[in-house]
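Researcher: I'm comparing several assemblies side by side, and this is the next one on my list. It has 732 residues spread over two chains. Same procedure as the others: predict the full complex and return the structure.
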Amino acid sequence: MLSIKDLKVSVANKEILSGINLEVRTGEVHAIMGPNGSGKSTLATAIAGRDTIDITHGSIKYQGENLLEMDPEERAKKGIFLGFQYPVEIPGVSMVSFMKTAVNEHRLYNGQEPLSAGDFLKYMREKKELVEFDSQLTNRSVNEGFSGGEKKKNEIFQMALLEPKLAILDETDSGLDIDALKIVARGVNTLKNKDNATIVITHYQRLLDYIIPDFVHVLYNGRIVKSSGKELAMELEEKGYDWIKEEAGR
Amino acid sequence: MENNHDEVIREVTQNEYKYGFYTDIETDTLPKGLNENIVRMISAKKDEPEWLLEWRLKAFQHWKKMKMPEWAHLIIPKIHYQDIIFYAAPKQQASLEGLDEVDPELRKTFDKLGIPLDEQKRLSGVAVDAVMDSVSVKTTFSETLAELGIIFCSFSDAVKNHPDLVKKYLGSVVPYTDNFFAALNSAVFSDGSFCYIPRGVRCPMELSTYFRINAANTGQFERTLLVADDEAMVSYLEGCTAPMRDENQLHAAVVEIVALEKAEVKYSTVQNWYPGDKNGKGGIFNFVTKRGICKGNDSKISWTQVETGSAITWKYPSCILKGHNSIGEFYSVAVTNNMQQADTGTKMMHIGRNTRSTIISKGISAGKSQNSYRGLVRILKNAENARNFSQCDSLLLGDRCGAHTFPYIETDNSTSIVEHEATTSKISEDQIFYCNQRGIGTEKAISLIVNGYAKEVLNKLPMEFAVEAQKLLQISLEGSVG
């Protein structure tokens, strides 16, 4: 589904990623871990297609197509979803009109009729229940005045509405208490199926107690320095990142 | 983002003004220039009574002594008043009875503007007075409204048929001495709308005036007078467009509103005059005086304006809150793009006790435009417990435009409460990317954010027009990403 080859990325002329290789197939859950500043968020942003970062080398293929040639909105409509680490507030724009616009843009792209207001509200109610999202929040402006936890849950709610093929969750667990973490994890697990894939980016192993990854990759200094099964996450939790740094330094 | 920005600017320049066409119709015009003779000729054309001619002449004498105001945050090129034609009327075919009384060519023009003059075709809830250049072409539903005692007609007809009402209220809110443009208008105004709602009547439909400038080198000087008698209620809407031309055209209108005891008037404007091209060539100079007086106790006047057009806008719809417990409101969305300039706002004069006013102003600037809010809240000595709340927000798109706020507060009564809030914000790249990532393209994202920002004001518009205004915002800002 996703194939990243020797990807090098700079931000403001500073190289952040120095040759990433990653293969993600449908039905898989990948965890990308690593110390702060290792380039995890930059990788997520590169896949989503933000123009503030420069791809200097390498390729990203998604479903056999060259992803780097597509606008961020086209990538989104082809099924790539990014759960933001810091979801932005959009004052004055209600969650309902925001997500109705987003869902209908997706439908239009896929040659479907746009949903009417009534149908959309019904669809929204279903998804709200599915991911246990507080019904009051959809009456408010996008993320405005939301607590940290509410913002993260809102990302999962949006993901449920858009039904992506590839979901990238960037530090979705950071700042969550254990109850919120469980709700977020339940949401991700509910939405998971054999036709989609998930990349979970996290600093801590904690989230991976609830979302079981098939693969764990450790990103350090712009490179994936170790890839393994889920047991790697446990090892990181136990020993921290220092041994990885040492190993990578050698 | 810089590349994106350039591209977007290019797109803006290709964005066509939808109403820029010109109707080729024979026009009856007076020679260009302004002197006492022209004033007399306009009056004679309209077959006016002596008192009105006298009033015009006094206004003209006064205007000659006045200077154009220079305090606004605007750069106004010199206006050559002797090069302007002050009266132009489309020549109509010999008038027939009923529906066919409007010249087919004019009918077509208004159809094209989305303002059908046939009552059957019209939105059932709206009566229209259509004004082209210097004269009123047609007023719909006049008869239906007359059954309720409501007078809704062109200003010229009002002078003929209801001279007492006109004489009583003309210039009572905006005297000809008020300001330069009001004096000019008083001398040369040619037509406009007149409306009188009798005591206790709630007007069952929206009343509206649609202004169209068509002839070249012509100024438009219309006058609207709206009187709501005791316990009367009316909602009024004004719309306007003009052809695309390289020269600037002057529009200097006056609107006067009188609200008597417990009367309520809601006046909404969707202003879409031609704004000029991307380099600031052409466009309408919109120098308008709008003022209402809450004369009776417990009366209310509410202004709502959506300003997207004009090369230069100079406009301050105001309320004189004379009656005790009277209420004044001003809701405004002003959009400027490319080289447009706007200096707009309101004045709230609190005279009576327990008077209340609310000001919500939302400025949106894009391109290289300059957008200013200018407002005065004045609480006079006897205005016990007067209350004002003002909120002035500015939204900037790009980094080459300007937003300015000039709020003045003068209070002579210590029991008053005056609040002022102001914010300036930009649409951030983070917000745009967030929308992009959800599948919403940049254009659509901006329109979503701008409409969200202006929602508070757009919601005040009558239903039919809120949708129109939303679309207009979208068109006016098409491509203006920062």
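Model: For your comparison table: Helices of chain A lie at 40-48, 72-77, 95-109, 117-130, 148-162, 178-191, 231-239, 242-249.
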